[in-house]
Automatic annotation (TrEMBL):
Pfam families reported for this sequence: Glyco_transf_4, Glycos_transf_1
Keyword presence, Lipoprotein: no
Record-linked InterPro entries: Glyco_trans_1, Glyco_trans_4-like_N, Glycosyltransferase_grp1
Source organism, top-level taxon: Bacteria
Protein name, per record: Glycosyltransferase involved in cell wall biosynthesis
GO molecular function, one term: glycosyltransferase activity
Keyword Protein biosynthesis: no
Residue span(s) of domain Glycosyltransferase subfamily 4-like N-terminal: 52-225
Length: 414
């Protein structure tokens, strides 16, 4: 505001004293206009090349905001759900690089640049789904940016050496050079986020450690309605998921081999040949299976064995939605989902011996476990609960964000 020379300082102060009232009126008018033209929403996801936990979150956000546009670095439409295929999906220039849909992880050094090319100036609300680079998007100055963080990027932080050791020497050298720059960019762009939402207390602690930011914990959606309680006592132990080293499927295979317990393994990965070499006759490998087969085995197993560390871990909740207990390593999200002896047991050491002891303790009380109580516990993590909690948070943050704009105006020096 420009004042004429004849305007006194007291008049100016009086005018500015009314400014918050005027600003609030303008905010209310703007909200009315916004409701008329509908909130412009952008959902930013790192890449859409499969249907895992992160993509399930994107689906639920799209159900909350049907008008939202999706921005992602790379998309493979053959491997996403029919629901997501109906959305308006915009990809980065990385999509045009030959082989990008299969070798996207090798393009990590280019991802910050590609992400920042997205123009989000027309959007009032930006929801980033973070596990790879997503939160670093550049938004309009007055837009609200809520980041749902599945995990800070593992491959440049706490899992850096694990990923680096799995690369050929050229990849190791390139990663050593680019990782420090990516870490600096990752930390710097955390300030572009208005509100962090963590998918577990475990991830909230990692956000605090790497970004020095607080977060609100809202567990990810689990489609509990897709599962039902199985009949009778379980027939076998079950391990399901990727057969990779950090998930420690070897612990489940060794334990059931030593105990002579039947174990069915569903999944594929680079550890499959090794696991077959250490497995006894009681262990059966089914490889990758469609959802219906996995659901059937979850409903018929004695218990799910979960020896790895996950940021949250949706599979244990799916097992509990089937009325089956979980025997999990005492780390990560399992501490929040396998939270009592009524739904499962946690073992303190990531060893075969610890799992064997836990299996023995479980089998002593197996007949007393109530499948319906286990399923009731799983409903705390349902998709409906996720949508309700996210909707409440976003509504509150939109209101607070508008109030902050008014407060900033009222605090301007005279």
């Amino acid at each position: 505001m420009t004042f004429k020379a004849t305007t006194s300082l007291s008049d100016a102060r009086a005018f500015l004293g009314d400014a918050p009232v005027m600003a609030k009126r303008r905010t209310a008018e703007a909200e009315s206009v916004k409701e008329t033209r509908q909130l412009r929403v952008a959902i930013v996801h790192y890449w859409l090349v499969s249907m895992r936990g992160g993509e399930k979150v994107v689906e639920e956000l799209c159900r909350m905001f049907p008008q939202a546009d999706i921005f992602t670095l790379v998309c493979n439409r053959d491997r996403i759900s029919d629901f997501l295929k109906t959305r308006n999906i915009r990809t980065s220039f990385l999509q045009k690089i030959p082989g990008a849909q299969r070798h996207y992880t090798k393009m990590l050094p280019l991802m910050p640049f590609a992400l920042e090319q997205f123009d989000l100036q027309d959007y009032d609300l930006v929801l980033s789904s973070e596990s790879g680079p997503a939160k670093g998007i550049i938004t309009r100055a007055d837009a609200l940016h809520v980041c749902y963080c599945h995990s800070p990027m593992r491959y440049i932080w706490d899992q850096f050496h694990v990923y680096r050791h799995g690369l050929p020497w050229v990849g190791r050298a390139l990663m050593s050079v680019t990782a420090p720059m990516l870490r600096a960019w990752d930390v710097t762009t955390s300030s572009r986020v208005d509100v962090f939402v963590a998918n577990s207390d475990y991830v909230a602690n990692r956000i605090r450690r790497f970004y020095d930011r607080d977060s609100i914990v809202i567990h990810p959606p689990v489609a509990t309605d897709d599962f039902s309680v199985g009949k009778g006592k379980g027939e076998f132990y079950l391990y399901a998921g990727q057969l990779t080293a950090y998930k420690r499927p070897d612990i489940a295979v060794r334990a059931c081999t030593e105990a002579g317990r039947k174990l069915i393994v569903i999944g594929e990965g680079e550890q499959l040949p090794y696991l077959k070499s250490i497995a006894g006759t009681t262990v059966q490998f089914l490889g990758h299976q469609p959802f219906d087969v996995l659901r059937d085995h979850l409903s018929r197993c004695r218990a799910l064995l979960f020896p790895g560390t996950e940021d949250f871990g949706i599979l244990p909740v799916e097992a509990m939605a089937s009325g089956r207990p979980v025997l999990a390593f005492d780390a990560g999200g399992a501490r929040e989902t396998v939270s009592s002896p009524q739904v499962g047991f946690r073992f303190a050491e990531q060893t075969t011996e610890a799992l064997l002891e836990t299996m023995a303790a479980f089998e002593e009380v197996e007949d007393d476990i109530d499948p319906q109580a286990i399923r009731a516990h799983s409903l705390k993590f349902s998709s409906a609960v996720f949508r309700n909690r996210m909707a409440g948070l976003i509504e509150q943050q939109l209101s607070t964000h508008a109030d902050r704009s008014v407060d900033a105006f009222s605090r301007r020096p005279v």
